[in-house]
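hi! just following up on the protien thing from before. the input was this:
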Amino acid sequence: MTTLADAFDPLSAAYLDDPQAAVQPLLADSPVFFHEALNSFVVTRHEDVRAVLTDFETFSSGAYKALEPSVEALATIPDEHKRVAQLVIGGGILLNLDPPVHTRERKAAQKAFTRPRVKDASDNIAAKADALIDGFADRGSVDLMQDFAYQLTLAVVGDMLGLPSEHLPRFHAWIGEVFGLMSPIDAKPGTSARSDADIVDAYTRMYSAYEFFSAFVADRRENPEDDLTSAMLGLTDEQGEPLLSNDAVLAHMVSITAAGTDTTANLIGNTVRYLTERPALLEELKADETLWEKVVEESLRRAGIGLHLFRYTTRDTEIRGVPIPARSMVLLNIAAANSDPSVFPDPLAYDIHRPNLGEHLAFGSGRHFCIGSPLARPEARIALQTLYRRLPGLKADLEEKQEYLPALTVRAMLNQTVTWQEADSDQRA
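and the predicted 3d structure came back as:
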């Protein structure tokens, strides 16, 4: 007999189209279940997901490794390529670290990722958005994701990190490789839907990008500038020694870029879709611009890019009476938690007037609360306000088939055609 849990397929097109709609039956009937294909216990309820996120002693964040092809194909990957992939995915990014290492690394990164630096970046968002819009305003139609959202968010984070503009596309592609190769540590070689050749090629690209950007970081250490990369490299301990290695800084650059680009770009794309479906809400926003902050929060709840987080149990435990042995994988379904009807009534409705908008877990919770969230929120708000100011009548093509990055951890939208009234598009003032 096939159960609802058996039908759970987080990489299917139907699931990616609307994960929150897909998980509603599970929230009601199977809030915690074992999924054999992922070799993981899946947790869906908001209360339980938040509890796991804040209990690092029972649920370790060290739950990721680089995806492996079949044993035969794995043997063809050079050891240095494997080391780099594991360094970035398994041992470097904040997402995969536990205290005390996570505490030390995050505290160091936050010393450089200061409020004044975030404010300086935020002050330039509207100008960057205007410049991008200038390039297509007279066309009447554009791919919002590729021609605006990803370019804007990458430019903002790139400036903050001090990455030259010509390096940004390569760095963003590298971020995609990181998330595309991120896999639960218990996943067996050869069990991915990706071909062996594709995975082997991804290792090669990961290593090439690592070499390139390692050279950039090394140069910044010798020749610091006024940017976040130099600030991280310049941190010292009580003895005056560098607090972060070049590899640690590079891993933090990956974490910050991932948090500040794809998350915000998808927040922009999904919000335009929601507003296209709700013209009355657009009129409400024209009358009261302070509501844009609520729009951002509801979009984060309804369509946050982070679908799932993995944890690894350090000891026997249980959730809702379901025993979970030590050394088990646990998949936290963030999409489900953010559409739990016991917390968010009528969860599939898009409602910016919910009294508890801030209770979503789109940025995580506890020690791993997204380090880039102070930038992501204003960036999305300013970008959206600029789009609707410059492009009156802006609408998403709701009939277009959406394509998504095939990854367990994120739901990254790759395309979204939008149109507007060409004659009225030049409204910079």
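The first helix runs from residue 13 to 17.
The chain is about 50% helix and 10% strand.
cheers
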